[in-house]
Write a structure and sequence with these properties.
alpha+beta
Length: 98
């Protein structure tokens, strides 16, 4: 069994850090990430009691690499820094803010 980089516990912390709106859909909780009231992205958080349940798909959905996503959940990367990364990758368009 390979070690998961993004566990369920870390996925929840990432959702909290990005001030996600959580809704329940089927077997997952859906974390929707907004910037200035515009939906930027979303990801699913698997339900269940297994804390090491794999969520290694999340980094790609939030425009980060695995290391950055882990650091976001562990606190060294802030929401403001995430916004800057997402802007640099074109996920947040400055023109849509006007």
């Amino acid at each position: 069994m390979s070690k998961r980089i993004i566990t369920k516990e870390l996925a929840v912390k990432i959702a909290d850090k990005l001030d996600a709106k959580i809704s329940k859909e089927g077997a997952h909780d859906i974390a929707e990430i907004f910037y200035k009231d515009v939906l930027i992205t979303w990801f699913g958080i698997r339900r269940g009691s297994e804390k090491d349940k794999g969520h290694d798909y999340i980094p790609g959905q939030i425009f980060l690499n695995a290391f950055q996503a882990k650091r976001l959940g562990q606190c060294p990367i802030t929401y403001a820094q995430w916004v800057e990364i997402a802007k640099a990758k074109g996920a947040i368009n400055e023109k849509s803010e006007e």
